[in-house]
Design a protein that fits this description.
Layout: E1 18-21, E2 25-26, E3 32-33, E4 38-47, E5 51-58, E6 61-67, H1 75-79, E7 85-87
Antiparallel strand pairs: 1-4, 1-7, 2-3, 4-5, 5-6
C-alpha cells in the first residue's frame, strides 16, 4: 500500500523536529541549501510583505534561513516546502 506524501508549507514546520533537504534551493540571501543538508527547526518569524525567517539549529549552531514570500522570489519554495525538505 502506498501513502501520499504529506504536503506542507515552510510556515507549517514543527518546532523541535529535524528536517533534511531533498531538493536544493537558494534562500533570500543567496545561500544555497543543498540536498542532504540536515537541521532542527526551532521557530519562525513572519513579516507581511517581507516573508518568513526560519530559525534552525545545524551542527550545534543557531542559523537562519530567510525566504521572501513573493512569487518572483522564494514564494514557490515557501508554498511547496514539502518538495524541498522531509522530516527525518
Amino acid at each position: 500500500m502506498s501513502f501520499a506524501k504529506r504536503k506542507f508549507t515552510a510556515a507549517d514546520l514543527v518546532s523541535g523536529r529535524t528536517y533534511t533537504i531533498v531538493k536544493m534551493f537558494i534562500d533570500y540571501d543567496g545561500i544555497i541549501h543543498s540536498t542532504g543538508e540536515r537541521w532542527r527547526f526551532v521557530e519562525k518569524d513572519f513579516l507581511p510583505y517581507d516573508g518568513l525567517t526560519l530559525h534552525i539549529e545545524r551542527k550545534g549552531r543557531a542559523e537562519t534561513i530567510r525566504l521572501q514570500w513573493r512569487e518572483e522570489t522564494q514564494g514557490q519554495i515557501i508554498d511547496y516546502f514539502s518538495e524541498y525538505v522531509e522530516e527525518v
